[in-house]
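ok trying this again, last paste got cut off
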Amino acid sequence: MVELWTTYGMEFVFIIAHIMAIIVPLLVSVAYLTYAERKIMGAMQMRQGPMTVGPFGLLQPLADGIKLFSKEIIIPSSAHRVVFVMAPMLTFFLSLIAWAVIPVNKDWALANINVGILYLFAISSLGVYGVLMAGWASNSKYAFLGGLRSAAQMVSYEVSMGLVIVTVLLCVGSLNLQDIVLVERTWWMKALLFPMFIIFLVSILAETNRAPFDLPEGESELSGGFLVEYSAMTFALFFLGEYANMILMAAMAVILFLGGWLPPFGLSGAWIDWVPGVVWFGLKTFGILFFYVWVRATMPRYRYDQLMRLGWKIFLPFTLIWVLVIAGCLLAFGALPS
């Protein structure tokens, strides 16, 4: 009995340690992504950004967290209390559990499952429920309309994202995320996948409700959208979930199109091979996150009808046609994966 407890107890401790090794850096990254966003946007708009709390404002995320988690949670008297509180918890929980299958280095994944890409797509699709629950439970017309907007937006762009992922799977012939990174791709495969990379970048902006597609919120028509009745810790959970989803989508783009933890552009050499794979993965992910911030700082906000037209009349037909083009090229070149 003691031997059994020792064996399974140590395995349990190892799994918990592995989970904490994923969650703690992720939460720190979320905190300092908010700092990096404000500093980068400040530089682009010729201002300083956070400078008061700590040297160069480095303690600003800590101050923001203390402020949000120390305030009183206000629940509207007409709100459905249980669903109102569960919505931000669900959003935050989903943004964490998706990281179970993300390989940040070779064999560095909590669960290396053969259908990892389907798991990721399923988790990202469930995120719409937290937004809908928040919009409905608040019992406010602004929150309800913001929830409906967000749900329609996320569902619309999940269609094009799914077809983009299909094109990658056609080229690599595997649903395993490590295999997707390690499969060798010819130059013409990379050229064919480049338009899908651009569509994927735009789609993840809409999927995470980021500018210029931040239409579930709007000062002129919806105030805070589905977040209008949230405050303190409940608002903080939505905030953390949004930024964790940004990092998750950036990591998906790195795995699908940018070679994951492998050195960029197929580079090799003594100093390049010395750099750990997790560092390359982090740098590539930060590059995608910089794109998020760059777009927010420079692009004007879309109207809702423009957003829907882009998703259904441009992205959907193009990705459908491109699936056929890639399948035809693979067949013509005899490069269909076995």
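PB: full thing came through this time. The mean pLDDT is 87.
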